[in-house]
Each structure stands twice: as C-alpha cells, then as structure tokens.
Amino acid sequence: MSVARVETAGITPKEYKTDQQVKWCPGCGDHSILIQLQKVLATRGADRDHTVFVSGIGCSSRFPYYMNTYGIHGIHGRAPAIATGVKCANPELDVWVVTGDGDGLSIGGNHFIHTARRNVGLKIILFNNRIYGLTKGQYSPTSELGTRTKSSPGGSIDYPVHPISLAIGAEVTFAARAVDTDVPHLQYVLRRMMEHRGTAFLEVYQNCQVYNANAYGWATDRQTRNEHIVYLEHGKPLIFGTNRDKGIRLRGDAFEVVELAKASQDELVVHDEKAANPSMAFRLAQMHYPEFPEPLGIFRAIEKPAYEELLTGQIAAARKKEGPPKLERLFHAGEMWKVG
Amino acid sequence: MSVARVETAGITPKEYKTDQQVKWCPGCGDHSILIQLQKVLATRGADRDHTVFVSGIGCSSRFPYYMNTYGIHGIHGRAPAIATGVKCANPELDVWVVTGDGDGLSIGGNHFIHTARRNVGLKIILFNNRIYGLTKGQYSPTSELGTRTKSSPGGSIDYPVHPISLAIGAEVTFAARAVDTDVPHLQYVLRRMMEHRGTAFLEVYQNCQVYNANAYGWATDRQTRNEHIVYLEHGKPLIFGTNRDKGIRLRGDAFEVVELAKASQDELVVHDEKAANPSMAFRLAQMHYPEFPEPLGIFRAIEKPAYEELLTGQIAAARKKEGPPKLERLFHAGEMWKVG
Amino acid sequence: MRFAGDSGDGMQLVGSQFTATSAVFGNDIATFPDYPAEIRAPLGTPAGVSGFQVNFASRHVFTPGDRADVLVAMNPAALKVNVGDLVDGGILVVNADEFDETNLQRAQYGANPLETGELSRFRLYKVPITTQTLEAVKQAGLGPRDAGRCKNFYALGLVYWLFDRPLEPTERWINSKFGKVPAVAQANTLALRAGYAYGETAEIFTVRYRVKPADLPAGTYRNLTGNQATALGLVAAAQLAGRPLFYGSYPITPASEILHELSTHHSFDVRVFQAEDEIAAMCSVVGAAFAGAIAVTGTSGPGMALKQEAIGLAVMTELPCVIVNVQRGGPSTGLPTKTEQADLWQAMLGRNGECPVPVVAARSPADCFWTALEATRVAVKYMTPVIMLSDGYLAQGSEPWRAPEDGELPALEVRFATDPATFEPYARLENGERPWAIPGTPGLHHRIGGLEKEHVSGNVCYVPENHQRMVELRAQKVANVARDVPDQEVFGAQRGELLVVSWGGTFGCVRTAIEQARDNGKDVSHVHLRWLNPMPRNLGEILSRFRKVLVCELNMGQLQLLLRGRYLVDAAGLHKVQGRPFMVSEVLDKVDELLGGKAL
Amino acid sequence: MRFAGDSGDGMQLVGSQFTATSAVFGNDIATFPDYPAEIRAPLGTPAGVSGFQVNFASRHVFTPGDRADVLVAMNPAALKVNVGDLVDGGILVVNADEFDETNLQRAQYGANPLETGELSRFRLYKVPITTQTLEAVKQAGLGPRDAGRCKNFYALGLVYWLFDRPLEPTERWINSKFGKVPAVAQANTLALRAGYAYGETAEIFTVRYRVKPADLPAGTYRNLTGNQATALGLVAAAQLAGRPLFYGSYPITPASEILHELSTHHSFDVRVFQAEDEIAAMCSVVGAAFAGAIAVTGTSGPGMALKQEAIGLAVMTELPCVIVNVQRGGPSTGLPTKTEQADLWQAMLGRNGECPVPVVAARSPADCFWTALEATRVAVKYMTPVIMLSDGYLAQGSEPWRAPEDGELPALEVRFATDPATFEPYARLENGERPWAIPGTPGLHHRIGGLEKEHVSGNVCYVPENHQRMVELRAQKVANVARDVPDQEVFGAQRGELLVVSWGGTFGCVRTAIEQARDNGKDVSHVHLRWLNPMPRNLGEILSRFRKVLVCELNMGQLQLLLRGRYLVDAAGLHKVQGRPFMVSEVLDKVDELLGGKAL
Ligand SMILES: Cc1ncc(C[n+]2csc(CCOP(=O)(O)OP(=O)(O)O)c2C)c(N)n1
Ligand SMILES: Cc1ncc(C[n+]2csc(CCOP(=O)(O)OP(=O)(O)O)c2C)c(N)n1
Ligand code: SF4
Ligand code: SF4
Ligand SMILES: [Mg+2]
Ligand SMILES: [Mg+2]
After folding, report:
1. How large is the ipTM?
2. CA C584–ligand 1 middle distance (angstroms)
3. Residues C23, C39: contact at Cβ < 8 Å?
4. pLDDT digit string (tens) for D168-193?
5. Are the beta carbons of A135 and B248 closer than 8 angstroms?
6. What CATH number matches the domain at A13-215, 3.30.70.360, 2.60.120.260, 3.40.50.970, 1.10.10.10?
7. Same structural domain for residues C138 and C190?
8. What is the pLDDT of residues A316-340, one digit of tens each?
C-alpha cells in the first residue's frame, strides 16, 4: 500500500506538536531547535504523512515524541542505521535523524560515518552539548580536554573529535553548523537541509543547562558573539566582527585574521560551498575558537546521487532487463529436471 | 609482576617467525608486509617480550599467529579497543594493531576513529585490499563505486571511504601510506611508525590475489608506477614521474600537476609532515589516481601527549597528592561511625 | 519514612541527609531512591515526582520497607504518586502552600484531596512549608527563587523533630557544602531549624517517634550505595592482588556511579577508560586482562547485550575479568531507571556457542562489596570472565557497611607463569584453568584468540575431537568453581512443606517475609542463592527435602526454569515486573496461597 | 561418495557437478561440502584439505551419509583426513602420483600408506591421475600448470564410469563455463573423458555401481543449497505479501550466500543493504519494517550476539521481521566453517529483559525455503521478529528442491492500518498483535521506540502495572503463535519405551537412525521439532507417553534443558560438538544404550 503524497498547504507549526509534554529542562537548547524545526516544516508545508523522525537515546533523542509525524525513538547510537532502513524501504519519505554528541559520535560513530559516505538521503541533526545529558553528566567525545565531569573529576584525558571535520573526512556531501539560540540562522540552515539530496549533516551548538551550562557562551552572548563566530555564505568573503571589521585570508598554508582596515577585501577567502574538493571545507572545520572565529553556516553542499537513488535505479534496471517479478521465473532459474 | 625491559641486541628476523605455517594465498600482499615488519623489528632490536600484536578477523588479521611475540587474534573490528586495554594496563609495551579494510573500517570504524582521536599509543596497520578476503570476496568500504563482487553482482552502490582522510578527520597524529611490494619504502614507514608517540596509522595498499587481483597494478607496476604515485618527503617539494619531471603546485584552492620544464621548483608544494593544522595533510589525502598521482609516505606526524601518558600522569599526580594506596584510606573515606 | 516532591525539589538530597544522620545515630537503614527517567520532567506532574524512601529500625533491616509510616509530600503530584503506599494511620505531612489550582490540575486531581476527606485514614498535617520557609530565611537575604529552594531543609527539620534526631550533622554538611556561598548556607540552616522548631512549637503532631540504635555487629560503619560498594570491592580486590585495576566502561543507568566512584580513586592505580561504547569497553577489558590488570567492566541490560560477543572472546581466551551487570527494567530500553531481575538468562545463556560463564549476584547494597571481591577472586583463580549481577534497586539504594578490618579480607593471589621451559598457553593447572602469562615476561611469547584452540599448545585447531574436548574442558572449569561455592544454607527448617528460593536484590524483602511467616508459625524455609552458575553442590538435595518450592524473582520465571530443568523440581514462581521490588506482603500472600493455611 | 583433495584442487567444483548430474539423473541426493577456514591453506597439508560428500540413492535420502562407500583422495593429506570415514570394504581411489616424499611429509605420514598395508581393508585403486591427466590434455596445448589443473575432471570422469553416469551434462557445463577459453574447455573435456575411459579400459575396478532413480514426488526439481533455498523462500514471501524485500546484512560464514543469492534478484524488488556491521544490519531491518518492507537479516553466531540489542527493539516496537541465524561452531569465532547447533539458547533466551521471540528451525537444505516462508508469514501475522535457525551443514549442503506449483504457496496477507478514526498504535488485534501503520499513510502519525509503551496508546509509560501488563501481552502474543504451529507428529509408535527428540539440521540423520532402529525392531519413536518457540501444544502430552526421552543435538544439551524445565521430563541427551553432523551410528548406539536391548 503506498499512498500518493500530498503537499499540505497552510499547515501551522502547532500541527507538528504532539500531545506529549515536552520534558526537557527549562533553559535547555533542545526547546529552541524543536520550535524552529516545527516552524520550518510548517512554512515549507512539509507533509507530515511522509515525514519520519528517527533518534537514538539521549535527552536530544526524545525529539520524535514531540513531532507529530511518524517517528522511531531507537536505541543508543543506531539512529542512522534505523533511518537507512526506513529510507531504503520507502525513498519517498523525508527521513530526519536526531542525535546527540554521545549518541551520534560515541557509540554511534560508525553508523554516522558510513551513512555519510554512502550519501543516504537522511537529514541528520546532531545536538552537540559536549556532555552526556541523559545519563547525568559524563564527558562526551566532543568535550574539551580537561573537562571535569562525574566520570572525569580530575579532568578528561580524551582529546575531542570535531563533528564537521569527521563528517567531511567521511566524505559527507552536506555539512553545516548552527547555534540553538540563533533563530533565523538556524531556520535558514534547516531549510537548506530540506533541499539537499543525500546526507545532510547539521551540528547544532546546544546548551545543556544542567550539566554543561554556558559551554557556548562565547557563541551566544549577544554582546560579544560576533567577535567569535563567522558566518559562511556561498560566494561571499569571510567577514566577521561586531562591526564587520575583520576578515579571514589564506597566508601560505594557513588562515589568518586580518583587520579590514589594513587589508583589501580581495585577499579574503571567498566561501564556496559547492567545491567538489572538500579540502577547503575541512580547513574551515578546523577553525576553532578562541584562535579563530568559529564558522557557522554551510561548509559544504555538493551534488551526488543518493544511495537510495542508486538502489532503486538498480532495481528498475533489473526489472527492465529481466521482466516482471514472476515467481515462476525465480523458481525455475537453475538447472531443472522433472520427476514423474 | 613487571620485568625490566631489555633491548635485545643482534636479533634476526627469523626469531620473529613462529612455528605456524603461513596460510595466505600465494601472491597475497600480506606475505611481504609480514616479512618487512619482521625485518624492521629485528633491525631495531625490538624486544619480543614487550611487543604485542593485536588483530581483528580477516585474512590480514591472521598476522599475530605469524609473529613470535605476544599476540591476540581478536574479534571482528575490535582490535583497537582490545589494544587500548593492553596499552592502558601496561604502557611499557609496544602494541601493534593489524587490521583489514573490512575489519578496521567497516565493523571497526568506530574504534578506529576513537583510538585516533584519543591518540592512544598504538601502531595500526590497515591492509587495504579493497575487498573482504576471508569471507570470499564481498566489496568493502574502500571498494570503488561499481565494484562487482559476490554481494554486488550489479556493481556496488556504496561510495568508498578514504582511510587517510577519515583518520585525519578523526584528528590522528600520524598517518602514512605504503604499498605492499615497495619494500624499502614500506620498511622506512614502518620504522617511522615505531618512533611515533600516540596513534600511528599506516594504510598499506595490499594485493588480494584471489578476489581483487591487481587492484593496485597502477601503483605497483614497475614500468609505470612512478607516473601514478608521488612520494611525500618532509621539507621537500612534491615531484614525481618516471623521470621526476612533474610536480604538484597549489593553484588558488586546488592542486595542479605541472611539468617541471614549464614551472619553477619554487612554486611546488613543499611537504610539511609536522604542520599542526591537518588541512594540508587532508588535501593530500584527497589526491586520487587517476586525476592525480597518489601520495605515498607520511602525511602527518605531529607531537602530542599520548592517551596512556595522560592516564599514568593522572595516577602519579593523585598518588603524590593522596599518598600510598592503603585500603584503610579507601574504606574510611566517607562519613563513618562506630558501633559497639 | 518517605520524602516525595518534584524532581527539582531536592528530595534525594534531604533523603540522603536523613539517611546519614540516622546511620550515624546507629540505626540500621536501607534506602531506595526513585527518580524520573527524564532529567527534569515537567514541574508538578506525576512524571516528575522524585521520591526517597528510608527504612530504619533498631532491629536488622533488610529492605527499604514496602509501605511508608510517614510520608512527606511537597506537592499534589507527589501525594498522588505516593499516598497509596502510606499505611493506614500513617503520618502524612503535606506542603499546603502547593495545593493550588494549577498544581492540582498538573497532578490531575479533580478536587483538592486535602478537602475531600479522602485522606481521612491518615494523620494528615497540612504545613505551609513554602511560606514558612520564605519567612524563615528572610534574614539571609536571598532572592525569592533561591529562598524557595530551601523548603526541602524545612521539611527535613520537621522530620528530624518527629524522629528526635540531632540537627548538627546536617548543619555541618550544609556548611561544608555551601560554605562558599554563606547566604545559601545560612538560609538552609535557618530553614532546617525553623522546620524543627515548627514541630516543637506548633504541637500539632500527636506522636513523636524515637527509634533506638540498632544491634549491628561492632565495627566502623559507613553508608554505601550498591554501586559505591561495588566500586570499593573492585579497588580492594585489585589491591589485594597487587595489580592495577582497569575499569573500561560506557555510562549507562543505573551502573554509571560505579564509573564515577572509580574515577575518584586514581591514587589506588585505578585506570578508568570511558570507552566509546560497551563493545569497546568489554574488548578493552580483554586486552587489559591479557596484559595483567584486574580488568572489569560494568553496564546494564542493553549494554550487556552488546558485550556478549566479546565476553565470548574472554571465554575462549580464558582471561580473568569481571562483568558487572546492574539490571534494569527491560526489554530494550525498557524502564531505564527502574529495577528488575530479567537479565539472568542473558547472563547465563545469552552467547553464541557453548559459552559458560560463572555468575554471582549481590543481595544487598553493602553486599555488593563482598560480591565484587568474590567475583574477582574467582575470575583470577579460574582464569575466566565472571558476571556479577546487581540491580537498580541495590545500585541506588544504600545500607550501612562495616569497613573490613585487617585480616578480614580474603587472599587474592595472582600467579603469573614465568618459566619458559615448561610454559604451554593452554596447559591445565590444578583448578582446570590455564596459566596467565603476561606480555613483558621473558620468553613466554604466545598468541591467543577467538578461534578454537588446541589443548595444551593453544594453536588454532580444527580437529573435531579437540573441539569437543575443549568445550568440555571449559565447561568443567566453570563447574569447578563450585569448589569455591559454599554449601547452601537453609534459613528455617531444613525440610518441610515449602522452600522459598530467591537470588540477588530480593534478599531483604524475601527474608523479611519468611521471618514473619515463620514467626506466624508457617512451615516455610528460605534459600537465597549467591552463585547462580555454578549452583551450590548441595542445592539439588535441599530442594528434594521440601514438598513445594517457590521461586521469587523480579522477572517472569528465569531462575525457576533453570531450577526446574536442572533438578526436575516442580517449582512454582512468584513473578513481578513492575520496575520495583517485591512488597513483603506479596511474598507472604503467595506463601499463604501455597501453604493453603498449613502451619508448622 | 566423497571427493577430497587440496583446497586448490577443485573438489567443490567436481562435487557439485557430480551432484547435478545425479540429480538430473533422478536420484535423491544430499551433499555436504567441507572446506578449510583459510582461503588457501598450505598446499598438501591436512589443514588445506577440501572435501565434498554426496549421498544419493533410489530411496529417500535424509543425510549426506555418515561414512563414505567411495572415496577419491587426490593427495596424502586428503587421504589422511578422510580415510577414517570410509566404510570397510569401500572403494578408495588415490592419485598415486601425489604420494611422493614431500607430500607424505606435509601430510605427516611417516611411511607411504599405499605401501604399509594399512589400507588393506579397502578396495584400493592407485591411479596415476596427474600424469594421466597431463597426457590426456596434451593436445589442448596448455602450459603444465593449467594442464595439471584438469585432474579433478579426470577424477570425475572415473567416478562417472563407476556409477554409470552420462558425461553430457558436465561437458555442456564445461563449455558454457570455459567457452571463452577454448583450450581450457577442451582440456577439461579431454580429462573428463580420459578418466571415464580409464575406468572402462583399465578394468581394475571389480564393481560398478548402478543407482536407480529415486522415488521422489512428481514435479520440477532443482538442486538447492540451504542458503539458496532460504533466499528463495524470502523472495517468495515478499512477493506473496506484495511488498519489497529488504535484506540488511553483513557478510559472515556460513550465512553470506544468502546475501549473495539475494543480490542477484533485484528484479523482484529485493533491496539488499550490505551494512557496516551486524548492528546496523539489524537496525536497518527495524527501520525497513517500520516503513512497510518485508525486512530480514541473516548472520551467524557472533553476528547474532551483536544483533540482540536491536532485536530487543523490534520486540518492544512489535515490528515484523525475520532474523536468520546460520549457526556455526562456537563459542567466539570458534570453528567458523563448521556446523553446530549451539545458538539455541542465544536465540531463545539471550536478550536483556523479558524478551520473547518466536524461533523456528529448518530441517534440510530444501526445507529452508519453507521455513523462511513460514517465519515471514508468522512475523507479519503476529507483528513480531522471528528467528529462523539454520546451520552450516544445511546452508552449504544441497538437496533436490521441488519448485512449488501454482496455489501451493500459503497466503501471506499484509493488513496495514489505514483508518485515522480508530487507529491506536498499541491496540491489540485478533492474534494479540498491534496494527502495522506505515509512514505515508494519511493521518496515522505515531511514534514508537524502545521505552516501555502504554497499552493501547503506545505513549511512553512508566506506570508499574502497565509494565507488567505489557510484558504479559508480549509473552502472550508469542505464545499465540502456537495457533500456527501444527500439532506435533510422532514418527513411529505413538507411545512406548523411547522417544528421540531432535530439531533443526539433524533431522535427516536422526530420522534415518530411527528408521533403521525400528526396522530392527526397536521400540523407539521420533519427534522432530520445527518450532522451538512456542513449542507445539501437544508436545508435553507426547513426551508423557514415553518412558524415556532422548534429545539429540549438536550442542551440550540446550533443547534438553528447555524440555526438562518446561515439561519436567527426565530427558537424556546425545551431545556432539565436533563441527560436524551426527553419524547415524552414533544415534543408533545411544538408542541401543537407552533401550538396553529391549525390542518392540
Ligand atoms: C547501549 C546503551 N548504552 C548506554 C546507554 C546510556 N545512555 C543513554 S543516553 C547516553 C548519552 C547521551 O548523551 P548525548 O547523546 O550527548 O545526548 P544528550 O543527553 O546530551 O542530549 C547514554 C550513555 C544506553 N541507553 N544504551
Ligand atoms: C561479528 C562478525 N561479523 C562478521 C564476520 C565475518 N568476517 C570475517 S573477516 C570479514 C571481513 C574481512 O575483510 P578485511 O577486514 O578487509 O580482511 P581481509 O580478509 O580482506 O584481509 C568478515 C566480514 C565475523 N568474523 N565476525
Ligand atoms: S540535562 Fe541538559 S541536555 Fe538534558 S534536558 Fe536538561 S538541559 Fe537539556
Ligand atoms: S583471499 Fe586475498 S587477502 Fe586473503 S590470503 Fe588470499 S590473496 Fe590474501
Ligand atoms: Mg550530549
Ligand atoms: Mg580486505
């Protein structure tokens, strides 16, 4: 049974809400992401009947319960694998994956990289609060070295991994970063994800109010944040600063911050999200605060057939060649003989 | 019980051989890697008592049985995790991990990236034959798109992952590539691995004679290989070609092959394996045959304290602060009261 | 005694203060915190209710008590969730301030239960805790929000008065904890005292409890949760063995506190590895064991499932290690914060191939210490992984633990192979184990792995008869552990009508029930199993001495099936999977049912 | 009839040719290939020996035969490994050319067995196969190495003569296979004929076998291995259901051929996903099932261990899917290419929490087709994962399979929920299942997951009583599958002295043994279980009708424990873990032992 897909007009964000009470802590960044996504889906008139949210386990992974679409709250780390099954079974569906830094990068790291390299048509949002929230505050693979938590009272000794670097290392076709409280930008990036074919990966800097409050203060504080972040815009030079008075240029083999007063705009790095070669995107992903402003926006967005397209393509080709699926043909394919 | 470590002088490669018959197919690249490593270890007088080989499952993972050291033939994909345990329990040991492209990157991908980011002091050799050998020939995560195998008779539809890109994306501190039959170069890289602190990762292009013969013909054919590969040498420009008549330069944001006759040497990219920023190493890892010559050698080799050093450091500091490990102190740490 | 309030109300905090004070005071205690799966569920709703139950008495206490004699309910939702467990005639203290429209609605109360008369069978005390607290802490000069936060200490003070407990320990604790923020310390102290004073002056309470110190064996005590006790047992084991303790684990409720506790013991050469997942954790344990550490991992149900393949590797390589499974409600993610005993089959039978592993289960929070020690000792002695079963109830609950004194701990001897002339990796030593030869030992190079091994040489071997032999040798080795399992003792009569069998964290409840039943003249005895694999050698014989056997467990009959299959006894079962322990009365009812009224 | 040689000698190839020819000829056949775990083990050593056994007869054949009547040994190692299985008086053909010093040493023969007389109880034929072959193929003009490669066809030709078989089918096959390299095709044909001619002319053979066509039911037949049959069964099931077949799997011996076979059936809308590991494979199956596909995964023991956590998710989400476990020797990596039945406990009891899953086991290679179909049908009907157990012996072995004819296949109706007005995700339908509502259906949005679900609404629910209820509902649903399990039939007398119980791939061997025993007048009957969970409703009653019960299984007593525990019968066991099937004689001996000589 496959029902034709109808784009619903005039849908409101409210229709994306479920009757379940939202159980995140007050001040948790998850609230904002939920609301923005509901808005974006509504504005786009996305069809709830054809939308599926899949998650793992973690505070963030409660997400599907609050989205009035189809959903699976899976097991820890495995959302991309579950979602791959959904997408292969029905490529018509819009399949979103919601995961955390522990869920998606610790236990789930392998599915994450394989989904990315296969370019399965999933929209993956990683809520990166640099902590294990649900299990009450252990350090995560994105926690900075020396982070003191319940499982690292003396400071963590694991170097962190950087989600976008890793995703690009795994050949992802779309990689972006946003901040939970930066509403218009978050909405913009979510919209762009919706348009992408293949794996679209978004890292959101998300505040865990209880176990890692203010980890991103530098990126959210309205007074100072523009000194610490730089927005990536396709075809535009990298300019930042509260007064938009600084830029990024490439000096030899390294980025460098320059004051625009002292340099010409032509020297600045111009962002190209469509570059086939991922090396510049990787270099951007390696810009870290406080040495550099950290980039927000779309690092990479290239065109490449998605896994499920290749899959269905192969099936269509076979059917064309071999004809309709008659069991007779299946059963009698080998060397047969008759008895009686 | 911890026995002082003795560097054994005058050891011969033969002493690294076990009494087990080597069971790889004739023509398999694994033979060469085994022999070269035995030679390198012998030349360096590496102490067999303090050497441990850990592997997963696969043809390549039979390796420990043929090394007359301590060894664990583990389970599929988990060698880096097992080896991490070995190294944490006794950081004095030289711990090698031998894995395949299926073992290390398919089922074992997560342990691979986490070991790399933690910078655990392991020497990881990935035998990349771009096929599952032991299970008789299915495509692997490094098989090229469209590879026809038992499990992909119509051509594989999974885009491959590139081991060095992935390792660098996971912040590895040492990444190198060599070819099974290129003996002196392989030996050189193995020696360099031995000197590295933290995770040393080596990808070897290895021939599977039975299921993927000649996948690397372009890199091994003595007549033509120098047109298809470029050796990375620290501090030296990237020059290649049978007559060493071509070089690589950076044009804007992209590499470009130039004929040396038509360009000056100064324009060429000079390799810097010690660059703190991994972006250039990543760019090199994205050079693929046939568009480019593929780099062999050491992409990256930087200094950073290893995981086990931080671990033992933390223990030493605690002991200094809290005193010797008396159970009395352990038991009486909380709020105590007396009865009777 | 039960405290219940919103999960933001600090109930766990005052609960543990009350526990500590009672413990120092010399009561035997048992606690059982109960908190929501969400970090912070919506304010004022039943989902967000957090509870903490303490049982304390002058006689030995085995369980936190089924039902409460005293309940402090900080809001309508807390009342709703907990009032069913309050005994008739029990004391009910409510924070009257919170019984407003909104909160009543959130708790889905139609009418205000304080007014409907539905609470008339309790001794109800409506105390305006919020306003009283605000009033009391005024002079500390906090903002209204912070001031309101002190109300848990007000409630605690009230209860201290009720049970005639000293305020000093808690005041000391407040000062050490909030010392850096004097205003907060002051406010909490003021609230505590005000609550106490309210009890004293308001004279609304008709009873005041006075519980005498309990009759515990002499010694120095400390209050420990099961997870803390497990951690201490492991550290002690490694110290006794003179080896580093390697703990490779991945956080999971309700096992994480073992990881947390161990992370504070670096000075005891505890090497904690927070792995990327449970598979890596277990694999790292195999590696660490090979390299000579006391190697341990801890997890709960879903994580245990992930570890099974690697536990099989430990079985094949015959390396000593301990796997702690703190069971929780299943299947799948299930009820992560609730207790259950439904991982017994998984532990005993849940691996590929013939893959036997010794299994031992702790019976109380403090017993986790001894169980962890014993599991480690057996692992090293028999060169085998050992599974230790705990559960959410033991793990989070607490109990006074007597610190072992000199000479009280068992020997834990580690004998590494050292002689190259005689070393064979898979030779069999006296207990059926193979030698432990660790890297770094001169001349003992050898290779192990997951493929079948040749007897003695340890080389890979596909010979059919060798496989059969090795399967049998591994089974025999695990069976040999029975040598270290003491003969089972029977509580009560040695033969008779009914034998109740239990294991793990249900000990306290079942023992209490059987004590009561026997006091009432019932012909019932009790066997509580510590070792599940192997079982005590005399168990079959014991079972045969009773006409009926009842297995009580928090699952649908897992031990029951094993006992039936092994000993062919027609054992009945009392099963419960509700995320919480048995109530003594449930066991008693079942006993009565089976005895059909028969007396001694 | 057994072919044995070095693994490079092409024994599997000639074995399957011989099988095909015999099958076409109308014999009933059963095959059992046996190859080394190494891709290419060292030349000439016992580790490298590859064997292929074919059993064929005019009466119904259940097993590839314990022991061989004819053995073709291509070198000393092949002789060494296989000669123990040759019946006394059997025909032994050896390639005399290979019995030189080097090969004898490699095979660890002290002296040349062809000369010591140790083979005197066989009818030994020393044929210089290598030189004869080289001679025969000369005219094809191949190099010596390629020419030598043809010796397997020479041996095949010889055996064809011995059994009076036509050469044409194989010649046709050679031409289609090597058509592009005419020299090779010619050489192989020449070798085949030369072997045949040698038998005819050398006149050294004293017997020539003539086996009549067997008495199989009328129909169109095809020879299938168990893995092929499983794959076809799954495709058929999906076709009957009118849904895509999603197969998410990770390669592992001996299950990989299911993946390979399915990868060739794209035109039947088979969507094969080669996952990064077994966990991803199983998770993808959960996702695909949610989205409405017939979702299946296949694996073997260690991979099964990895899937358990996600199988738990399928249990909790109540999604239909099939997990095929092709068992191999364990524990751990064990004996990857050998057969065993030691994953029964793992399948039945190996998950966290109370997590019941229906389990069904195939009994022969061709039966894998029907079992796969049945597993799928039950999964969809009861909205549950179903585990299908196969084993290495079934998977690799082959058997004639009669292609089902029109109307012979069962209905496999899929009923998706469609009505938003009445839809409740966890409402219970007639068989205890919940409705299947797939994304894309207007208005049926809902969320499922691994946390405990509220009855009917499917919302997350921590209410204690609800958990109890849901555990019971899930158990009841699986118990309801018994409605689809036909009453167990007993082979032989319906009551009596001894009942032999078996399950899975041992069917052929055990049935053959019981037939023989009964022919010899023994009071023994046979029950072969297809469904292990739930068991047939009348099983307990059947067991009670026999004085003794014997469970035969290739493990150390897994079904035995379950039967004992469930039915309290004192079942004895015949156990074997040697990586190979029972021999009929082993079963007979055990039966004799238990009967103590008693006759009907
Ligand atoms: C197999 C398994 N292992 C461990 C857990 C425990 N667990 C649940 S969520 C979580 C980490 C959550 O961290 P993250 O993904 O960052 O999510 P957050 O809560 O921070 O949003 C862990 C370790 C589990 N549920 N299952
Ligand atoms: C858990 C588990 N899954 C699957 C397998 C089967 N298996 C063994 S080796 C292998 C892949 C080997 O490929 P690779 O790592 O590339 O090694 P190679 O043989 O090519 O050297 C697989 C899938 C296994 N042994 N265990
Ligand atoms: S614990 Fe942190 S991540 Fe979880 S809901 Fe609370 S604030 Fe959000
Ligand atoms: S199958 Fe391939 S990888 Fe394996 S031993 Fe043979 S040649 Fe080497
Ligand atoms: Mg997080
Ligand atoms: Mg490979």
Report:
1. 0.91
2. 35
3. no
4. 888 888 888 888 888 888 899 989 98
5. no
6. 3.40.50.970
7. yes
8. 999 999 999 999 999 998 788 888 7
